[in-house]
Amino acid sequence: MKTITLFILLISTILFSQEKTNEAVYLQTSPVIYNMPNISYKTKEWSARKALFRSKEFLFKQVLGVTKDPIKFNITPLASTKSDELTTLIYKCEELNKNGLILGFYGHYWNENGVSYNGYGFKNLEKEDAIKFLNKIEKAIEDNKKFLQSDHDNNNIYFEFDDMQILIYKEVGYSIRLFWNGFDSSWDNTSFNKTKSRFEFNVDK
Question: What is this structure's pTM?
């Protein structure tokens, strides 16, 4: 009888602990205010479509500015990486004479309690800064091609642009890692080239 009672108590304790743990995880991973660093997001999936949806609020509130009169703007995803850690979007607002490039970052985080979060954030580069940024990466690769190709993955170059740090090395293709605001996002060379060519083609249309 004592054995049965102990067994029931043990099972109850385990079930209660599991229930409390799951409840704590659910509460701590609920989404918080958008456009803050390391934002939590319920789904683990991310894509150019989701980046487009989320970036619209960032664009009109943080870049273009909220107005009482209707303002027209266009925003289009250019490319996302295979891992979806980085999505690039181009925007244009003729009424305010503003256009440029938005970098959409996405990554995984843990809080002080060890709870996993999916975070995203956006960085705006106005037209001239975007051109300088893309050209600097391209030139850095071209100027250091021999060094990078001589020892794949082991030879690296790095530099800073604005508040971002950029690390580049050679694997199958060139790998570009962008460090910004706690994010560490990998940008494969194919996605970078698509972004650069499409941005240059569309920005002056």
Answer: 0.74
